[in-house]
């Protein structure tokens, strides 16, 4: 349990501090549920703390992002259907998330798209910039898919677009004029003033809300990621508690064994003292006996603990290495507790 708690802590810390390809600090997300969307978004533009904001369609950070496999390009095999995340957003999206353009430029209309490095690898064309791909735009009443031709104008550096349990998804960023008519919005504000900005955004949303509009949900992106990884933090707290309990139980058990042992072997201890053994030598004799028990326990727990942690980290795309440091620490701690 101590080993598992250390490894889970390592994994949680690794995920929180890992580079996810965009700047989370100062980034706020909310859903636009107001019916008067254009008036509301224009009100948001007038807030001094709002440096910029963007409409991003239905793009929301979650454990299960919306994916589609209806993406075609020249030379694609008919039986090859990889999943893509299609993000419909306006030109501000790249600037607000502080994404890095590796090649090309930002789309200027809805006939142009950006792709990330993962999508570029899947498409696998040498001269991707300026080439045409197709993505799904709906379906006819007879079930026939409607595909739209778009030109790739740039390649953006990979960034995390779902919870950290997901790998980097291949993305197609479609230009869309949804600045005043989107559902999901991302707002960039000065770092450290997120709470103040949230109150001002909430006030703007309520100002133009009708009686039937729901209460706005506004969160920083850091809060969203924290909420998505609550289960890992709960696992960490559980294993810390179990580790403390097992240490206490083990200490009481070792004390009980040593007390009953010394009581049962009083005559042997007395004879050893008469024969010239020092108290230090007698104590060392008992410690070596208990150390054998600890060594056997270590040999038993190591493969089971290692297998459990290895299986647990498989659910994450960002996997902290399960190093020998935690194992050596537990062995030293177990031996020291004797």
What is the global morphology?
A: elongated
Overall residue-averaged pLDDT value: 84
Number of helices: 10
Query: Which structural category do the helix and sheet elements fall into?
Result: alpha+beta
Question: How many distinct beta strands?
Answer: 11
Order of helices and strands, N to C? HEHEEEHEEHEEEEHEHHHHH
Strand content: 15-25%
Largest sheet: 7 strands, mixed
Secondary structure: helix percent = 40-55%
User: What is Rg?
Assistant: 30 Å
Distance between the termini: 18 Å
Protein described:
There is one protein chain. By secondary structure, this protein is α+β, with helices and mostly antiparallel strands. Helices cover 44% and strands 17% of the residues. It is built from ten helices and eleven strands. The chain has helices at 2-17, 37-45, 93-96, 117-123, 194-207, 221-228, 230-264, 266-274, 279-312, 324-336; strands spanning 27-31, 52-55, 71-73, 85-89, 101-104, 112-116, 132-139, 145-156, 171-175, 184-188, 218-220. The strands form two sheets. Strands 3, 4, 5, 6, 7, 8 and 9 form a seven-stranded mixed β-sheet that branches. It has a four-stranded antiparallel β-sheet with strand order 2-10-1-11. Strand 7 (132-139) and strand 8 form a beta hairpin.
